[in-house]
Amino acid sequence: MSLLTIAAPVRQKKRVKPELMRDTIQKLCLKRYLLLKTLAEVLDRSPDTIRTHYLNPMLEEDLLELQYPDQPNHPQQAYIASNFSQKADR
């Protein structure tokens, strides 16, 4: 399934429930690392909004993991669903 297909329910609407956005982000990050820029593009949202309202809280709740956990500001920082981080190619 393509990233745009997964993101369609969010992408097609200006406002969505936070639960739908979080669920969509988790599906997008399933088994693959995605950059913030990529998430912003496929979800049609600003990177700052995605980072502050969704990614940071999801990281705190251990729903997502960083590709470079020791370097939070790494220029190629990417996100993956927590239960798949050990299996993904780094």
CATH topology, what is it called? Arc Repressor Mutant, subunit A
Radius of gyration: 12 Å
Structural classification: mainly alpha
In sequence order, what are the helices and strands, one letter per element? HHEHHEE
Task: Give the strand order of the largest sheet, numbering strands 1, 2, ... along the chain.
Answer: 1-3-2
- The fraction of residues assigned to DSSP E strands is 5-15%
Summarize the entry for a quick read.
This protein has four helices and three strands, in the order H-H-E-H-H-E-E. The chain has helices spanning 3-11, 18-28, 36-43, 47-60; strands spanning 34-35, 64-66, 78-81.
Q: How would you characterize the overall build of this protein?
A:
The mean pLDDT is 93. The chain has a three-stranded antiparallel sheet with strand order 1-3-2. The chain has 90 residues and is mostly helical. The protein is globular and about 35 Å long. Helices cover 47% and strands 10% of the residues. Helix 1 (3-11) runs antiparallel to helix 2 (18-28). It has one domain (3-84): Arc Repressor Mutant, subunit A. The chain has four helices and three strands.
